[in-house]
Amino acid sequence: MSRAGVACALFTVAAMALTACGGDSASGPPAPTPAALQIVAGDAQRGLPGDTLTTPLSVRVTDAGGEPFEGARVHWRVTDGYAGIVDSVTRSGPDGLASTRLFLGALTPSATVSVEASVDGLAPVTFSASMIDPCTYVHDFAIGQSANGSLTTPDCRLGDETPVDFFLLSVTGTRGVLLTMTTPRYSPFLFLVDSVGRPVAQTLTRPQTGLTAVRLLLPTGRFLVAANAYSAGEYGTYALSATAAPDTLGACDPAWIALGLSATERLSARCPAAGGPVQHQVLFGLRGGDSVTVTMTATGFRASVWLYVVGVGGSPVRVATATDPGQPATAGYTVAQTTLLTALLRSSTTTDTGAYTFSVR
User: Fold this and answer.
1) What is the SS3 string spanning 176-245?
2) CATH (one of 1.10.510.10, 1.25.40.20, 3.40.190.10, 2.60.120.380) for 134-245
3) φ and ψ at 21, to 5 degrees?
4) In this structure, are residues 302 and 322 in contact, taking their beta carbons and an 8 Å threshold?
5) What is the C-alpha separation between 249 and 263, in angstroms, rounded?
6) If we measure between CA atoms, which residue out of 361, 359, 198, 345 comes closest to residue 291?
7) What are phi and psi for residue 247, nearest 5 degrees?
8) Assigned superfamily of 36-131
9) What is the dihedral sign for C-alpha 231, 236, 242, 248?
10) pTM, 2 dp
11) Residue 20 in this model has a pLDDT that exceeds 60
């Protein structure tokens, strides 16, 4: 055998020996693989139609030793209901976490939504979410507060198909409030009801601009404010505010009031635009079958109460005038259907002024 052949044979034998002795130690331990998938956050949330849920849907991927597994592909899909996933595939990070965002259906909202998260080779996990009926959702609101919102197609709709958002206004003590709604592209409409659903105030005529406001004098209570569009098919952003207003009536400043209000006021001047007696004007609403009693008493003059139905011209439906100063003028009225009324609180002459008390119950 040539020297070259001997060298080749020895090299082959040596290589086989090295392979036999050291092959196993060179391969090392097997690489970790995903072994478990569990929900971390975002399950059982609630939201309005069209909302993106506040908390991301989040899972953790771990290996067989319970350590975070990085780089696993997590697949997300909606398995029930109408909703959408922002990212349908995400990867777990160094902490083993992977997440996505869920937005609820708007055009065809459903009561519940199910979302499945899965990793190849592992049992999937399922998230649930539920939609809030927009007609039962109420935003908290307070005097001195402003809120920005938007009327959209998924919003609650009234019987006339106009979209509406609701706000809960709490009042302590007799308070004057100016409620204002402004919109950039459509005519706004405001209305207010008390805790038993009785109308308190509303926009009376279609605004010529994107602004409507109602002046209120309210007793202690909780009131539902409705930010509404004047006509069906009108949508867009709005700004709603409730600012403090005088706690007294003004000669040229009619105010909406709620039943149960009683207050002390003063007739002091005639509105320049109006003739006749010195007077204040209040407006309020009644439901079908409701009765109201308006009482006015003044020690310095004969009080007089005139009741009119809003939107109906002509004579008052009730007039009551005190027989003497210090005696009450009391006008009562019952309605067969939801009705808006206005009461003129006046003196019996064109010149009498002074303090008086009134109540609407």
Assistant:
1) EEEEEEECCCCCEEEEEECCCCCEEEECCCCCCCCEEEEEEEECCEEEEEEEEECCCCCCEEEEEEEEEE
2) 2.60.120.380
3) -85, -35
4) yes
5) 10
6) 361
7) -85, 10
8) Immunoglobulins (2.60.40.10)
9) negative
10) 0.78
11) no
Domain locations in the chain as residue ranges: 36-131, 134-245, 255-360
Residue 304, Cβ density class (10 Å: 0-12 exposed, 13-18 middle, ≥19 buried): buried
Cβ contact 135:48 at 8 Å: no
Q: Calculate mean pLDDT across residues 259-286.
A: 85
CB atoms within 10 A of CB 78: 18
Q: Dihedral angle at the C-alpha atoms of 23, 25, 31, 36, nearest 10 degrees?
A: 120
pLDDT tens profile 130-161: 999 999 999 999 999 999 999 998 899 999 99
Going 291 to 166 to 164 to 202, the CA torsion angle's sign is positive
The string of pLDDT tens digits covering residues 305-357 is: 999 999 887 899 999 999 999 999 999 999 999 999 999 999 888 778 999 99
Whether the Cβ atoms of residue 261 and residue 218 lie closer than 8 Å to each other: yes
Tokens of 248: 């007294």
State the pairing for strand pair 175-182/156-157: unpaired
Query: Given its phi and psi angles, is residue 197 left (phi above 0), alpha (psi -120 to 50 degrees) or beta?
Result: left
What is the DSSP track for 232-292? Answer: TT--EEEEEEEEEE-SS-BTTB-EEE-TTEEEEEEE----TT--SS-EEEEEEEE-TT-EE
Rg (CA), the chain: 36
* Closest by CA position to 148, among listed 238, 28, 59, 70: 238
Domains 36-131 and 255-360 share a fold: no
Q: Is 137 exposed, middle or buried (0-12, 13-18, 19+ CB in 10 A)?
A: middle
Question: Distance between the two ends of the chain, CA-based, in angstroms?
Answer: 126
Cβ contact 236:206 at 8 Å: no
Distances (CA, A) of 256 to 190, 201, 207: 12, 6, 18
CATH code linked to domain 255-360 = 2.60.120.380
Q: Rounded to an integer, what distance in angstroms lies between the CA atom of residue 198 and that of residue 171?
A: 16
Range 246-259 burial, b when 16+ CB lie within 10 A, else e? eeebbbeebbbbbb
